[in-house]
Amino acid sequence: MAKLSPRSAALWQAMGCGPDPWTAPLAGSLAPGNFWRNLLVIGDAPASQFDILHEMLRREPQTGPVACLALAGSGFHGHRGRSWAAETGNIHLSVGLPVNLQATATLPLLIMLPAVAVVDAVRTVTGGRVVPGIKWVNDILVEGRKVAGVLTTTQTRGRLVEAVTLGIGLNVSGAPQVPPTPFVPRTGALHEFSGDEEPAVFSVLQHLLGALGQRHLDLLAGGGESLLRAYREASLVVGRRVRVWDECEGECGAEEPWPPPLAAGRVLSIEADLTLRMEGRDEPVTGGRLAFESSCDRLIIKK
Predict the structure, then answer these.
(1) 298 compared with 145, residue with greater pLDDT
(2) Which regions of 107-248 does DSSP assign to beta strands (E)?
C-alpha cells in the first residue's frame, strides 16, 4: 500500500474515513500505460463516494483519472437517488476522468461508456462464458437478471464537457435481495453464471478498470462510433416489445393501478443520441424507465 497524493487524500478526508488514507497499486489493472496509478480503497464507506467525487470534480474538473472502490457501505444510490444495496464481495466503484470534448456529441457517449466497459470486463474475465447485455439506458443483465447498474454525471462549461464521474455497482459474489419490479424483476451475481470458476472480485475489478481506461482513451481519440457500435451490439431492447414510463413513475406495487406508459411497442433502433425509435411512433423516446413487455403482464393500468 502507498500513501495517496494530496488531491486523493482530500477525497479520503471528505469521505470521513479517518486520518490515514491508503491506496492499492494498480500496475496490473490492464489499462493502457500508466492510466490508473492507484486505487483508493474504503472498507466501509459512510456515504456515497460517487457524490463526493462529483463535487470534487465540480470544483477541480481536471482531477483524475482517479478511482475509488468501496468494499461495503451505506448511502449508495442509482439513478435519481434510488437506493442501491451494497454487499461485501461486490464492486462499488466510482471514477473521475477529465474529458474536454464538445458536449452535444459527447454526453450520450459518456452514458454509454460505463455500461459498455462492464460488458467488456465481464466477457473477458469469464472467457466468454457469461454473456451480459444492456437494458436501456444503463442496466446490465445476464439471463434476465440485473447484475450491474451504472451512473454518469458530468461537469460542463459552456459547450464543453470538462470532466465526468462514473459510478458502477457490479454484483460479483452476491445478489442483493430487493423487491421485484417490472424494471428489475430479478437480480443476479456473476458467480451464479460462471460455473465452477467463480470470478474473483479483484480480477473482475482489474478488467473493469482496464476496460474503462481503454474506452475513455478511445473516446478522446475520436472513437465515438466504436463506443456507439459496442452499445448497440450489447443492447437487449432492439427488436423487443417494451413499455417506457416517466422517470418519476412506477414506484407503486404490482397490485396497485399504474399510470399509462409514455410509450409502448417494439423498439426499432437506438439512435446516436441514445433515444429509442419505436414502431408506430413518429417521435423518439428521449428518456424514462424501460420494462420489457413480458414483465408487465400482471400490471393494472389506469384508464
Answers:
(1) 145
(2) 133-135, 139-142, 145-157, 160-170, 241-245
